[in-house]
Each structure stands twice: as structure tokens, then as C-alpha cells.
Design goal:
It is a single chain. The protein is an all-alpha fold. The chain has two domains: 2-249, no CATH class; 270-396, no CATH class. It is 62% helix and 2% strand. The protein is built from 19 helices and four strands. It has helices at 2-10, 17-44, 52-65, 70-82, 93-96, 98-112, 116-122, 130-136, 142-155, 158-180, 212-217, 233-243, 270-278, 280-301, 306-313, 328-340, 342-359, 365-380, 385-396, and strands at 48-50, 202-203, 231-232, 247-249. The chain has a two-stranded antiparallel sheet. A two-stranded parallel ribbon has the order 2-3. Helix 2 crosses helix 4 (70-82) and helix 14 runs antiparallel to helix 19 (385-396). It is elongated, with a radius of gyration of 25 Å. The N and C termini lie far apart (71 Å).
Length: 402
């Protein structure tokens, strides 16, 4: 009897409390790695290929710890990218509210996975073999039951608590934190069209998914870190797998390369245009930072009443964004400010013009080039430092080596 009670209390391994915490952190981290490497980067975005043994380990582990099916997760995530921040986005805090996505993200996912149109349209290319059809899709929650029994046998009664933590880890951190907070607050390296933000420059806890703005800017990149100070632990795992021939990286975000020395007089040709298109997010990010500097300088220079100065100061976070992304409540204030400042009005108008150059789908490359040449000529003669710096950077872009 005593041995039975001891087994129930401590399981086969009889670990201390701190050892149990360490085991939970390791197990949940494996689940996070499975989501970011297999489901997200390899399956949803085709950024890398994985060896079949590695792929199946991840599939099996996700069946044990989440009950998620590859087809469902990929379909919901691809729809999120296709419909981001709109009413059709399955889990945008911009349309559903942060509280809803943070605390009910799993419910939103479960509701969307019932949408047959979503599954049919966005799940192509996901596994459809015998084990997927006959085991993972048929016995969805049996894997979690196996994990519960395993945790109990190994760790005793505390294993049930450890299992519960494993079960809520992905619903909270992936469905809640990344989909919710990651589209609500944080820092942005790139002025992507959505509200995505980087939660932390060190992607450790959630496998690199913390670098969410980087991902939404370059969704097909296997590497999520962008700046020198950022760290993507998921990328470290991918590189390790690649070292042993277990993974092959297919795509990475482009890295802007600028010619050293003076760029004045460099010819603006079709190669320049293509290089600009490849590095457009780098350019817009620099444009945005310079625009905020000009915004501060203009507020200091203009003779404004205290009330107007306070009112216009609220635009600081929005002046770097595309005017179409500015909330309606701030647009009238912005128009009032632009009436006072030719510099800011010119900056915003020319930023919009620059973006429109590569967004025109009905014009030829030659017409796009003429538009770019005209834009650069006007920027260089504008007398506005930010526009002149942007024009110089465009002239300095060089194609990435093949």
C-alpha cells in the first residue's frame, strides 16, 4: 500500500518540485519549437524543407501536446495573413479587441477551423498521408490523453498539473499573446501595412515568434530576426538541423546593400527599381524614423498655441504611418497640422507617392521606372533633408549577390 501511495504521489521518477518545473519548461519549449519550425515556417510559409523524420517527430509531438492538426493550423494562419486586421481576420485584436484575442484566442481558432471554406482554400500542401487521415485527424484528443497518462506515470499526482500547463501553453502564448499582444503593442522595425509589432528583441520564450513585425514584413523568411541585436532561437534550431542535413532553408528576408561612397549621379535604371522593390520595407522604415525627427523639429519651429501644440503632439506615433492607416479620429488633426507645415505636408505626400510606385499593378516596369526617376528628381530638389537622404539611399542600393 505504501509503495502504491508513493507511486501516486511521486511517479516513477520521484523528482523534486524544481526538477518538475524544469521538465515542464523543456517540454513546453519543444512544443513551441514544433509550432514555429514545423507548423509556421515550414508548413504555412514554405520557408524551409524538413527531413521527413524531423517533420513527423514534430507532427507526433503536436498531437501529444496540443491535439492540433497541421491542415487546420496552417489554413487559419494563412487566412490571418491574407485578411490581416480586417473583419475576416480570424484573430485580430484591431477588430475583435485585445481582451477577446488574449484570453479567448483558442476559442477563436477552434471556431475558424470549423469553417470548411477556410480549410479548402488555405490548407493546400499540408500532409495528407495515412497516419494523418487515420490517426491524427481521427483520434484528435487521444494524443493528449496519452500525454496525461505518461505525465502521471512519470511524475505522479503533480504530473496532472504539469500536463495542464502543457495543454494551456500554446493556447495562451501562441493564440493569445502572439496573435493578440503581437498585433497591439511593441516596437516595429518595418512599416508593414498591418499592426504587427515585435514583442521582444530576444525570441526565446516563444521560439522567435516574439519578432512578429519582422515576420509579417517578410512572411516567407525562415529567419525572423532582422537587426543585429535581435535573437531568434527558432532560427538557431533550424541552422542546427541544417548542419546535420535535416533541414534546408529556402527563403530568407533580403538584406539591404548600399554602395559605399557617394551615390550622387548613379544611374536610376530597371536594376535600381527592382532592388528598391526588394528593399522597400527597409527604405520605408528609415523614411519613417526621419519623418518623426522632422515632426519634432517642425513642432518646435512652428508658432503654435499651447493647445495646438498639445493636440498635434498626439500625432507623433501616426506621422510615420501610411495616411490610410491613421485612425479617423486623428485625420482631421493631421490635416490641421499639415496646413501649418509645408515640410510635413510634402513629406507625407511624397511618402504616399513613393509607395504607390511599386503598388501599381496595371503599369509596365518602364512606366514605374519613369515614376521613380521623377520622384528622385523632386526629392533631391525639395530642400528637405529627409527626402534627399531617401533619394541618396535609393541611388546607393545595389543588387544582392546571386
Amino acid at each position: 500500500m505504501d509503495s502504491l501511495l508513493d507511486f501516486v504521489a511521486h511517479g516513477l521518477l520521484d523528482l523534486s518540485a524544481w526538477q518538475c518545473v524544469a521538465v515542464v519548461l523543456v517540454l513546453t519549449h519543444i512544443t513551441i519549437a514544433s509550432v514555429t519550425i514545423f507548423l509556421h515556417r515550414a508548413q504555412a510559409h514554405r520557408a524551409l524543407d524538413l527531413h521527413p523524420l524531423v517533420s513527423h517527430f514534430f507532427r507526433f509531438w503536436l498531437w501529444l501536446t496540443t491535439g492540433m492538426q497541421t491542415r487546420d493550423w496552417v489554413a487559419v494562419h494563412r487566412k490571418h495573413h491574407a485578411k490581416c486586421e480586417t473583419a475576416e481576420d480570424p484573430h485580430s485584436p484591431q477588430t475583435r479587441g485585445l481582451r477577446k484575442v488574449l484570453w479567448q484566442g483558442a476559442e477563436l481558432y477552434m471556431a475558424e477551423r470549423q469553417n470548411l471554406e477556410t480549410l479548402e482554400r488555405y490548407s493546400r500542401g499540408t500532409p495528407d498521408d495515412w497516419v494523418e487521415r487515420k490517426v491524427y485527424s481521427r483520434w484528435i484528443w487521444h494524443g493528449c490523453a496519452i500525454m496525461l497518462i505518461t505525465d502521471f506515470v512519470l511524475f505522479g499526482a503533480v504530473g496532472v498539473t504539469m500536463w495542464a500547463v502543457q495543454m494551456v501553453w500554446i493556447p495562451f502564448f501562441a493564440a493569445g499573446v502572439i496573435n493578440g499582444v503581437g498585433h497591439f503593442t511593441g516596437y516595429r522595425n518595418f512599416d508593414s501595412a498591418d499592426a504587427s509589432a515585435n514583442l521582444s528583441p530576444w525570441g526565446l520564450l516563444i521560439g522567435g515568434e516574439e519578432l512578429h513585425n519582422n515576420h509579417h514584413t517578410f512572411p516567407t523568411s525562415a529567419k525572423l530576426s532582422s537587426k543585429w541585436f535581435e535573437f531568434d532561437i527558432g532560427w538557431a534550431y533550424i541552422r542546427t538541423l541544417e548542419l546535420f542535413g535535416l533541414a534546408k532553408v529556402l527563403r530568407r528576408a533580403p538584406v539591404a546593400q548600399v554602395a559605399r561612397g557617394a551615390s550622387a549621379g548613379r544611374q536610376i535604371d530597371l536594376h535600381t527599381l527592382q532592388t528598391l522593390i526588394n528593399n522597400r520595407y527597409d527604405l520605408l522604415a528609415r523614411f519613417a524614423r526621419s519623418a518623426q525627427r522632422d515632426f519634432r523639429d517642425e513642432l518646435a519651429r512652428l508658432r503654435l498655441s499651447a493647445a495646438d501644440r498639445e493636440r498635434f503632439a498626439a500625432l507623433r506615433r501616426w506621422v510615420r504611418r501610411d495616411p490610410a492607416a491613421i485612425p479617423e479620429a486623428h485625420r482631421r488633426t493631421l490635416q490641421d497640422l499639415l496646413a501649418h507645415s509645408r515640410v510635413l505636408r510634402t513629406l507625407i505626400d511624397m511618402r504616399t507617392e513613393l509607395s504607390s510606385i511599386w503598388q501599381q499593378s496595371t503599369v509596365s516596369r518602364e512606366q514605374m521606372l519613369l515614376g521613380l526617376q521623377d520622384w528622385i528628381a523632386r526629392a533631391e530638389s525639395s530642400g528637405i533633408r529627409t527626402l534627399q537622404d531617401v533619394a541618396a539611399r535609393i541611388r546607393g542600393y545595389v543588387p544582392a549577390p546571386a
